[in-house]
Design brief:
By secondary structure, the chain is of the alpha+beta class. The chain has a single domain (2-142), classed as Alpha-D-Glucose-1,6-Bisphosphate, Chain A, domain 4. It has 2 helices and 7 strands. It has helices at residues 14-21, 118-142, and strands at residues 2-10, 34-43, 46-53, 59-67, 71-78, 81-92, 99-110. The longest helix is centred in the C-terminal third of the chain and has 25 residues, at 118-142. The protein is globular, with a radius of gyration of 15 Å.
């Protein structure tokens, strides 16, 4: 398994950050490794969906659970990637009306014969995550 952890401090109220990250249908706007999202079903705070990833336009199945203003857990259930991506937010008090520590943790591996490329995938995921987190930061800070 490849574990990747990326943090970013965002100078915006938690509600502004949550508004961006919880719009999981809009994920491709920030996460360039996700090309498209197709929701299959929704039950309470969990969405069963198919995503198309940038790596060879592969399709993966995910169960995404939203824990309001706390975290989003995406479990890859079928496809070329297995494992989890968790995006969590930790509100911080400061003199500017609040900020958020946003953290993304990946614990994934490639399946089948592609498993040998998990190490190579790690660098791509880290770069894509750093870009996504920066884009989320800019959007949240611009909204206040």
């Amino acid at each position: 398994m490849a574990e990747i952890v990326v943090d970013v401090e965002i100078r915006a109220p938690p509600g502004a950050v949550w508004g961006i990250i919880s719009d999981v249908d809009n994920e491709p706007a920030y996460w360039k490794g996700t090309k498209s999202v197709r929701n299959i079903s929704r039950q309470e705070n969990t969405i069963h969906r198919e995503i198309t990833i940038a790596f060879r336009d592969q399709k993966c199945m995910q169960d995404v659970t939203l824990y309001p203003e706390e975290r989003i857990e995406a479990v890859f259930t079928d496809g070329i990637i297995k494992g989890t991506k968790t995006v969590s937010m930790e509100p911080r008090d400061d003199d500017n009306g609040g900020s958020v520590l946003l953290r993304t943790v990946w614990d994934v591996k490639m399946t089948g014969m592609m498993g040998m490329f998990t190490g190579m995938l790690k660098g791509h995921i880290r770069n894509g995550t750093e870009m996504a987190m920066q884009s989320i930061k800019e959007a949240a800070e611009k909204s206040v």
